[in-house]
Amino acid sequence: MASTLYIIPTPIGNIEDITLRALSTLKSVSLIACEDTRVTQKLLNKYKIDSRLIDCHKFNEKQRSSEIIRVLERGEDVALVSDAGTPLISDPGSVLLKELRALSFKVVALPGACAVTTFLSAIERETEEFAFFGFLPRTQNQQSEVFKKYRYINTVFYDSPNRLLETLENIRNFFGEDKKIAIGRELTKVYEEIKIGAVSEIIDYYKNNTLKGEIVGMIFAQGYTQTDENELTEKINLLRAQNFSAKDCVKIITGLFNEPKNRIYELVQRVYNGR
Prior knowledge:
Blueprint: E1 4-7, H1 20-28, E2 31-34, H2 37-46, E3 52-55, H3 61-73, E4 78-80, H4 94-102, E5 106-109, H5 115-120, E6 130-135, H6 140-149, E7 154-159, H7 161-175, E8 180-185, E9 193-198, H8 199-207, E10 215-219, H9 229-241, H10 246-257, H11 261-272
Parallel strand pairs: 1-4, 1-5, 2-3, 2-4, 6-7
Antiparallel strand pairs: 7-10, 8-9, 8-10
Helix pairs in contact: 3-4, 6-7, 7-8, 9-10, 9-11, 10-11
């Protein structure tokens, strides 16, 4: 079909952080689907754009998808934006895209503002690898599971001002007070701030300073120290002697030592096959 859904990033703070292509596309489409029409209308007013708006958020996305499909079926183009940043990056849109791709509509994503990449470009890192989690789960136990899973890779997350100190306390309880982290706040705005240091220092800082605005954080990767192969082989032999299956042995050893699963799998196969 000739019509297209355009995925268009909007500014994350500074209203001038929008591309010329994004502006021309917003002017050309018949409909703009956004999280909050009041927020997006301010952007449209700034750049004298009069395209029609409808709200499309996580509570009505399924319903709005049908309306957007009808517009596309008429051969008209539609834009999808979020309140700030790139749609579908911890924002709604997946339900809509799944339906459109099933119907073979064209989807075009434009490059632009994103809090994750803006934040990372200001942080010196040992490696390019990182895991983006979005908003962390609320409870300490759930967060601990995330920390355990991603402890060997830089972990980027979003947080809110009213939850950040609790999250930082959970990080300190899990990793220790010297764990290196970075916190970005109010990115691209007048009071933009990026703090890097030990989690205990960051906690003390935010206990004594006003905490406002959207927040992006990163837990720096923990250095990986490989467990001695003889120690692992000894544990595998013990489990085998107790009639654990090779599959269960892999699961147990990986959980105990936080070793890469492929390494444990190779060692277990070697022991169980007598090599």
